[in-house]
């Protein structure tokens, strides 16, 4: 069974999908409103929305005749938490490098 985060990263690999998420981070929008921001067809935007929805990054709800797209913060948070472990790793390595460079400077002086 594939890890759900695989689908999230696959969805985020496309710049149009990332731009759609950027737009949705500012508020809900319909597919038509989203399509107006891109030089691609409404069908292409719909396909991108399908990928984002399948990855759990957005949900679509229906209100009367309009279908709203909404970002799912929990799924975005999962990506952030995954990246956080590597941020901490690099901070530890930079701290170790700083210590090493300090020792070298002390030895030279």
Automatic annotation (TrEMBL):
Residue ranges of every copy of the HTH arsR-type domain listed in the record: 1-91
UniProt-listed SUPFAM superfamilies: Winged helix' DNA-binding domain
GO molecular function annotation: DNA-binding transcription factor activity
NCBIfam families: HTH_metalloreg (NF033788)
PANTHER family referenced in this protein's UniProt entry, alphabetically: SLL0088 PROTEIN (PTHR38600:SF2), TRANSCRIPTIONAL REGULATORY PROTEIN (PTHR38600)
Stated name of the protein: ArsR family transcriptional regulator
